[in-house]
């Protein structure tokens, strides 16, 4: 068994179509010292029923349930609070990990003394068909660069909870993961490190908020104003910086795969 324990946090809400594949991608990890904490946000479909089938045979998996729908941030934080691992990682209920994801990432973090680490990831559509696109990770991400745009795919991120302590997400409707990773990088006081190899698979969902990038842009002002507590002037300034960074810099991260 690997020396360091990884706590994996997965919020679920009406995820019956994908949760089996997501959990299976964790069970297939070549790194074996992990716990999976699923937090169901009052699903009304068969999500919990499917999870319960896994609980019968997999002691590394646990389920927490919200009595009413609370949102992704509160669900993630509930999982973080229960986590017992040296490292904390996240995987949403419709995304997937490649089998060597944890093994390669934990080794990379140890070899490079990284407190925060992320990787490139590939894209699939709702049916699981490859879109032949990869989002490339920056090799090094400073806090100041990170302020300009969200460069960490939440499904790829891991932070060293043993060193940094538990980092929680603010209760915002959207972009709470960006704020959580910003806090982790700031607390680390050194850059987050990116792995070039795609280690995860992001599912692009029809009509989801994250699939409509233009619609999502309006939430970024709140990252600066409410999440970080910047003044109105400073928030507007960073919002303009974000727009430039997103459309003229970050967009170049998306490359066509072969």
**Low-pLDDT sequence parts:** none
Largest β-sheet summary: 11 strands, mixed
Helical run tally:
10
Helix-strand pattern: EHEHEHEEHEEEHEHHEHHHE
Q: How many DSSP E strands? A: 11
Q: What Rg, in angstroms, do the CA atoms define?
A: 17 Å
- Kindly, what is the distance between the CA atoms of the first and last residues, rounded to a whole number of angstroms? 35 Å
Principal-axes geometry comes out as globular
Strand content: 15-25%
Counting helices, strands and paired strands, the structural category is alpha/beta
Q: Which bin fits the share of residues in helices?
A: 25-40%
How would you describe this structure in keywords?
alpha/beta; eleven-stranded mixed beta sheet
Can you walk through the features of this model?
There is one protein chain. This protein is of the alpha/beta class and about 260 residues long. The chain has helices at about 20-25, 45-55, 70-80, 100-110, 145-150, 160-165, 175-190, 215, 220-225, 230-250, and strands spanning about 5-10, 35-40, 60-65, 85-90, 95, 115-125, 130-135, 140, 160, 190-205, 255. Strands 1, 2, 3, 4, 5, 6, 7, 8, 9, 10 and 11 form an 11-stranded mixed β-sheet that branches. Helix 9 runs antiparallel to helix 10. The mean pLDDT is about 95.
Protein topology:
Layout: E1 6-12, H1 19-27, E2 34-40, H2 47-55, E3 61-65, H3 72-82, E4 87-90, E5 96-97, H4 101-112, E6 116-124, E7 130-135, E8 140-141, H5 143-148, E9 158-160, H6 161-164, H7 176-188, E10 192-203, H8 213-217, H9 220-227, H10 232-248, E11 254-256
Parallel strand pairs: 1-2, 1-4, 2-3, 6-10
Antiparallel strand pairs: 4-9, 5-10, 6-7, 6-9, 7-11, 8-10
Helix pairs in contact: 9-10
């Amino acid at each position: 068994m690997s020396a360091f324990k990884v706590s994996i946090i997965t919020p679920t809400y009406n995820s019956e179509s994908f949760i089996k594949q997501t959990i299976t991608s964790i069970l297939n990890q070549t790194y074996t010292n992990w716990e999976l904490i699923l937090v169901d946000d009052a699903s009304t479909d068969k999500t919990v029923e499917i999870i319960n089938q896994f609980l019968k045979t997999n002691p590394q998996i646990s389920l927490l349930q919200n009595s009413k729908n609370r949102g992704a941030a509160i669900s993630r934080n509930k999982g973080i609070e229960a986590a017992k691992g040296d490292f904390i990682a996240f995987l949403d209920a419709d995304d997937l990990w490649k089998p060597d994801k944890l093994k390669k990432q934990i080794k990379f973090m140890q070899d490079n003394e990284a407190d925060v680490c992320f990787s490139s990831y590939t894209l699939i559509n709702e049916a699981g068909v490859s879109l032949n696109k990869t989002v490339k990770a920056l090799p090094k991400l400073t806090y100041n660069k990170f302020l300009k745009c969200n460069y960490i795919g939440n499904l790829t991120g891991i932070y060293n909870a043993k060193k940094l302590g538990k980092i929680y997400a603010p209760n915002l409707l959207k972009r709470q993961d960006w704020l959580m990773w910003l806090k982790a990088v700031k607390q680390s006081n050194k850059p987050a490190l990116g792995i070039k190899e795609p280690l995860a698979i992001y599912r692009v969902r029809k009509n989801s908020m994250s699939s409509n990038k233009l619609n999502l842009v309006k939430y970024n002002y709140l990252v600066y104003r409410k999440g970080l507590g910047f003044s109105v002037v400073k928030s507007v300034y960073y919002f303009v910086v974000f727009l430039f960074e997103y459309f003229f810099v970050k967009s170049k991260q998306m490359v066509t795969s072969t």
